Amino acid sequence: MTEQRSTARRRRADAIDIGMRVFADHGLTTASMQKVADQMGVSQPYVFRLFGSKRNLFLACLDELEARIRQVLDQTAAQHPDDPLPAMRAGFRALIADGVVTGLWLQACAVARSDQEVAAHSRAVIGRILEHAARLSSAGPQELRGTLALGALVVMLQALGMDLSEGSQAALDSLRDATTEGVT
């Protein structure tokens, strides 16, 4: 059997998947395109040919983050058509469990403080996700605002290494309990 070479489209998808993990761990500034290339088994110039720049790969990773969130929203809404929002929240918590989405999003927020292109791209991602969630759930603005706030809280708690298996309220309670016991 002969080994079949990957297409540029497949290699691009591989680079994005690997890039999401690398950027989640190291951010845009310190992430190494060489690390992405090494994990793909290709040369660094090949990765640059696929995307043109490290920032373009980063933006492509944000687009993939959006696609993954939208896929979770679609799946959970289809499974719970009568009341999809709670299922969407649970699906989101499951999606971020490995830390990649959380890390990448926090890195994007950090970069956005000084990079207007990343900031605009990140705002657009949030806007499209909110619009998609509204369409799937028929939730109103206040309910969507609460869901976004809860999602941001869950991302923060996950990044801090909190156990979210019992839900975000249980994680918050454990933080409060630790503080009242004098442990931080």
TrEMBL record:
Keyword line: DNA-binding, Transcription, Transcription regulation
Domain HTH tetR-type: residue ranges: 9-69
Alphabetical list of SUPFAM superfamilies matching this protein: Homeodomain-like (SSF46689)
The keyword Manganese belongs to this UniProt entry's keyword annotation: no
InterPro entries attached to this UniProt entry: Homeodomain-like_sf (IPR009057), HTH_TetR (IPR001647)
Keyword Transcription regulation: yes
Chain residues forming the annotated DNA-binding region: 32-51
Name used for this protein in its record: HTH tetR-type domain-containing protein
